[in-house]
Amino acid sequence: MKKKPFRKKQKGMAERKTETERKTDPPYKAVTLGLLLWLVVTWLFFGSGIVRHIDIAKGQSVPSTIVASVDFECENLTETALNRTKAENAVSPVFTIDPAPAQRATKVIGKLFDRLLELTTTPTNQQQVIENSMSDLLLGSSVDAAEMIALFPSNQIETLKIAITTNLVKVMATGILSDEYHRTLFRDAHDRKVSIRNPDGTASKTVTQKDIYSSRRALRTISSQIKDEPQRELTVRLLGSFVEENMAYDEAATEALRNEASAAVEPVIHQYITGTPLVRAGESATQQTLLLLQFHEQKRQEEQAGFEQVLEIVGNGILLLAGLIATAIILRVVAPQILQRPDQLLLLIILSLFTLGLARLLTYLAVQYSLFSPALLMYLVPHALAILLAAILLGGSAALCLGLWTSFATAVLFNQSFTVFALGLLITVTATSTARNVHRRSSLFKAGLWVCAVEVLFVLVAAILNRPDAPVLIGQLIAAILVGMLSTVMTLLFIPIFEKLFKITTDITLLELSDMGHPLLQKMAIQAPGTYHHSLMVATLAQNAAEAIGANSLLIRVCAYYHDIGKMAKPEFFTENIQHKENPHDELSPHMSALVIVSHVKEGLTLAKRHKLPQPILDAIEQHHGNGLISFFYHKAKLQQKKDLASENINDSDFRYGGAPAVSPEMAILSLADASEAAARSIEKPTPQKITNMINDIFSMKIRDGQMDHASLTMAEINIVKQSFIFSLSNMLHGRIPYPKDHENKPTQPTTKPSDSAEKSSAAN
């Protein structure tokens, strides 16, 4: 038996382990990463002790009676609020006196009495002018100039002027308050005080109601020194037109004083002893209820012995470890390849820490700083973010396992809450099912809308059971919608980052590369049109076969487009591009021809790296020939050796490609499709039987040569691929009836059998 020549392991094959090798690797890397995740999560959740939050919302019906297990003190919100309200009501309202009304009234009154004095010294023929000027000043008043002239004798004018203006300034300096403020401010307390400030804001004085003038009382006080009744009545009427309320309510200053007074009130603290019912089953939770539960929990943690705290932390840690082990077992069943890929397992760990880290941060902000209500907490955790990323980057199985773990761990953090666990699972199933086949970025928003819809439905169902207040329910709905959409947007931002860091190619990227307007494909269509057409045919063959066995048809189609781009370096040396030209290989030795043919793999890898094509396409370029034998030139070299009677042996390793055998079902199908499509072009007058025989030979040769050893394809799947190729090629290479020429298309002449050349022409089409 002839000894099979040793073939060294190629560089690309050495860098990437096969599935068989991965399965036989010891799982210490996966175990190490799992233990590291468990330690990080345990420290993250319980590093500073057990942190609990009250998951009862305001207005919710309390499911069971809660009794104090320790003595503690808590503020009585009702009594404290009552005392603060009393303190606020005791604050005097603040008013500011406006000096402008007093200045205007004094000026007008002074001018009127000055005109009266002028009348006593003015000739009779000029008195009408003065009287007219008085009428101008009295516009809008119920008093006319004639009345003043008649009632105020000349010998009393100066005295009356001094008395009226003096009292006017004094009264308005005290302040005149409108009747409306009198009715509202002193309705319940007639001895209430009012703080009066100067216009510059400095404190002036505090007075009671009896010291404040109303409009009517101010007019009577100003005219009180006038003894003559008609003169006094006329003065009241006169002043009624010019004396205005001059006290303006300072709302900002009043509120500031009330806030100071309220803040100065000490909280009313009540003592609650062990055994006191804090809230009974069926009661509606109030703010006081939530505060009692919060203080009770804080006191319970303070009095809990250190050993008990350690036991509780250890118990929760063991619970987390059990959940992690269960998730790992499920992952091994549904997606074992991830456990064998440390990089993908690390990505899953990072994604899980996204959710769990944010959950811990939100819990800390809610409990320690009360930035938002604890009732919103479970809906603010972005469960969907990690699930959507995992579904797109690693597939649905990995996303389901990740969602199971994060939901379980978050439920442990939230006091073993079944509600949190159920919400996480629902979001996991929804996000995984809707993002499983995302080929466009716009499709991701549809997945986000489904996640929002499920969260909103969960909020409404929970509201039926818990019956929270309307503000709490609205807040939960807003939180669910906001976090769902924000998770979708963040997923779009993180996908390119993780693709780059972990060298993962998503269907979104593949779909972008499938655009036939890509510069490489356009260049190939011009420089190597035969190779371009060959790539399209291989893509069709491979895609159909991949769909038949459930492989990634999009991946294999895109890889087929680019697998032969290296032929653009020397397109004239490949059969599909030679056409009717002379074959350049006729002038070359078999060894040189083999070197030229082999070089297209290396040229393709260089070109792909230059254009930054993703790793799957690099794999396709390297593996579509594997390290297979270039049989045509190998046999040509052997014939030439016999002809030349050379004594040296022909080493088949000189006629093998430098790539690596296929390490995945997709690459194996591509390799088979490439060889089958190229061979099918050489069949003259193709028939289904000829195509079948050819496909059988190619598959047998590939299997014998070891090109399928690492592809993880069963014989049943290989047979399905074979049948798919036969069906596709039989339809691609179908024959056509030759059309008669114009001079033969005559009704009088019988139809003749087409020539052999015509049949060849129709078969080529």
List segments where confidence is low: pLDDT < 50 over at least 5 consecutive residues.
Answer: 1-16, 745-765
Rg (CA only): 48 Å
What percentage of amino acids are in beta strands? under 5%
Helix coverage percent: 55-70%
Average pLDDT taken over every residue: 83
Strand order of the largest sheet: 5-4-3-6
What does this structure look like?
The chain folds into 3 domains: 14-47 and 305-504, no CATH class; 90-259, no CATH class; 525-734, Hypothetical protein af1432, CATH 1.10.3210. It has 34 helices and 8 strands. The two termini are 46 Å apart. It is mainly alpha-helical. It has a 4-stranded mixed β-sheet. Strands 1-8 form a two-stranded antiparallel ribbon. A two-stranded antiparallel ribbon has the order 2-7. Residues 1-16 and 745-765 have low confidence and may be disordered. The chain is 63% helix and 4% strand. Helix 10 crosses helix 11 and helix 25 packs across helix 31 (665-680).
Features:
765 residues, mainly alpha, Hypothetical protein af1432, 4-stranded mixed beta sheet, two-stranded antiparallel sheet, 8 strands, elongated, disordered N terminus, disordered C terminus
Topology (SSEs and partners):
Blueprint lengths: L10 H5 L3 H6 L3 H19 L19 E2 L4 E4 L1 H14 L3 E4 L2 H22 L5 H11 L7 H7 L5 H18 L4 H7 L7 E5 L5 E6 L6 H8 L6 H12 L6 E3 L1 H14 L4 E4 L4 E3 L7 H17 L2 H29 L1 H4 L2 H27 L8 H4 L2 H11 L2 H18 L4 H18 L5 H26 L3 H33 L4 H7 L5 H9 L1 H21 L3 H10 L12 H4 L11 H21 L4 H9 L7 H14 L20 H16 L7 H17 L10 H18 L23 H9 L1
Parallel strand pairs: 3-4
Antiparallel strand pairs: 1-8, 2-7, 3-6, 4-5
Helix pairs in contact: 3-14, 3-16, 4-12, 5-6, 5-8, 10-11, 14-19, 16-18, 16-19, 18-19, 18-20, 18-22, 19-20, 20-21, 21-22, 24-25, 25-26, 25-31, 25-33, 26-29, 26-31, 28-29, 28-30, 31-32, 32-33
